[in-house]
Structure formats: C-alpha cells, structure tokens
Design goal:
By secondary structure, the chain is of the alpha/beta class. The protein is 53% helix and 9% strand. It has two domains: 170 residues, P-loop containing nucleotide triphosphate hydrolases (Rossmann fold), CATH 3.40.50; 112 residues, no CATH class. It has a five-stranded parallel sheet, with helices on both faces. It starts with a helix and ends in a 10-residue tail after the last helix. InterPro entries: AAA_22, P-loop_NTPase.
Length: 299
C-alpha cells in the first residue's frame, strides 16, 4: 500500500482506490502511512485522514463540517453549507500553499459509504484548489463495493468522477503466506516492548522461561499457518485464504494472556492451544458469515 500510494503522490495522480474486505487493518494502515509518508516526501506535505463520513443521507452541510472537523479546522460547525465549503477550500489551499509540493493528500476511510453527490462536492473542492495551483490527491479506502461503484460510474459515463478520484486501484490484503505471518510474529519477539520502558518484548514477558531457552513466536509461523488452514478446511470455508489482521492479533493476544505467565502459565504454545486461540478470536465464525469471493490477483 505504501509503495502504491507513494507512486500516486510522486507522479501527481489525482486519486485512487484502496479496497479490501472488512477487518484487514486498512484504517491502521492509513494511520501508519500518515506517520511515514513525511519520511518520503518531507514534513511539509499536508496529509489528512477523513474517518467519519458515514451518513446515510447525502447532506451537504454535514459533509463539509465532517471534512472540516477531520482536517483539524477550529470552526467546523457554524455557517451555511456554502460557507463551510469555502472555509474548507481556503483551509486546504493555505495548507497546500505552505508545502513545497503545492499539493495535499486526503485519505477518505470507509469510502464505500460515499454518495454520488459527495463526489460532486469533492470535485468542487478539487477544482477550487486547482484554480489556486494546489494539487489534491484523494485516496478512497474501503470495501470491495468501491469497485462496484466505479463500474457503475463507468456505465453511467461519470468519467469526471473516475478521472479525479478513481484513476488507480490497489487491493489491500490480509495475511496470505507463511512469510507474512512470520513477519507479524517477529514483531512480538523483537519490536514491541512490554511493559513500556522495560526493554522486554511481549514474548519474553509472557513466556520468560521459554524465551530464555530460545523459543520465539516467529518459529511458530509455519505451525500457526497450518492450523489456520486446517480449521478452514474443517469448517468447509471456501474462497481465497486470507487472515484479517484483527483476527490474527486477537489470536496472538489470547495466546499471550491466556497461556502466558499472567494466565495459565503454560510453558509454551502448542498446536492445540493455537486452535483454541483461533476459535476464541472469532475468525472461523466470521469467515463462515462472509460469502466466498475469488479475487483476480492481477488487479
């Protein structure tokens, strides 16, 4: 996701869509990108995260006050819709003008909730910024419905929307390989610290004796991956194998808290215990409720 969006920003693309099934970690990925994009483009690149556009009805006043609030404007609620729109445009223009890039980046989370009218109002902001020589890259992040919405816009010849906000696409995925899983588990062994300031990793804190003799969660990656696969087969879950980050992290947290030093104080996590942790995470029940969908990996 970082590589795709970096290209979009570098080559001044007006926008694109990031799509994936629920609970993969898309919102956390946006929060991560907000922290690391300045390393790539400088601290003066304005990057905003719009996260609360969930209105069932397309209301212009609510739309602009939501954007004003999420970009950090001090006066988001007062005034008519036209005043809020002007206030937002001026705020973004000022932010973009102070950047050497003369541009702003806006992530819109849960973008499948946007109505067609919302896109029209976004175009107003886009066009006004363009008149002030400020480029705006809008990154729509949401579920697979975003693809359906783009197809509908193509069929109804809404090319002005596609050309501004849906030029590119990138599929966001969960854990799909043993290598993916190994990288995540290694974070608990090496990167994450608990308690804060202790210098100890999560693995060391919850399984101190096992850690002392060389056991690491990363070494469980193949076994844990196989357990996920086996439980899917037993439950007759079809479709592309993918572990949403929410359920993976919940599985690991359950193993640490339930089996570690503050729980049952079991020496180390076995295959049977991983099965218990996966069931406790809700992963199997969630997969059974989601229709099987096969994705075109070439997208």
């Amino acid at each position: 996701m970082f590589q795709a969006i970096s290209k979009w920003i570098k080559y001044r693309s007006p926008g694109g869509i990031i799509y994936g099934r629920p609970r993969l970690g898309k919102t956390r990925a946006i929060e991560y990108l907000l922290r690391i994009l300045p390393n790539e483009f400088g601290n003066d690149l304005p990057v905003f995260h719009i996260r609360t556009l969930h209105t069932k009805l397309a209301n212009e006043g609510v739309f602009f006050e939501t954007l004003l609030k999420d970009v950090g404007h001090g006066v988001p609620f007062s005034g008519k819709p036209s005043i809020k729109r002007d206030r937002l445009a001026k705020f973004l223009a000022e932010k973009g003008d102070t950047s050497r890039h003369k541009r702003i980046v806006m992530f819109i989370d849960e973008a499948q909730c946007l109505h067609e009218l919302n896109y029209g109002w976004l175009m107003d902001i886009y066009n006004e910024l363009d008149q002030n020589r400020i480029a705006m890259t809008v990154i729509l992040v949401g579920q697979e419905e975003l693809l359906h919405r783009r197809t509908l816009f193509m069929e109804t010849k809404r090319h002005q929307i596609i050309g501004r906000f849906m030029v590119h696409e990138h599929r966001f995925t969960g854990i799909k390989t043993k290598e993916d899983l190994s990288i995540c588990l290694s974070g608990f062994d090496q990167l994450a610290e608990f308690p804060k300031g202790s210098g100890w990793s999560y693995t060391r804190y919850f399984f101190p004796e096992a850690y002392a003799v060389g056991n690491r969660l990363q070494d469980c990656s193949e076994e844990l991956f196989d357990v996920f696969s086996s439980l899917r087969q037993q439950a007759k879950i079809r479709g592309t194998f993918e572990i949403p980050m929410q359920y993976l992290i919940t599985t690991i947290e359950y193993a640490l808290l339930e089996f570690g030093a503050n729980g049952r104080n079991i020496g180390w996590v076995t295959k049977a215990l991983w099965e218990e942790a996966i069931y406790a995470s809700g992963y199997i029940h969630a997969e059974l409720r989601i229709p099987a969908v096969e994705f075109d990996e070439s997208l």
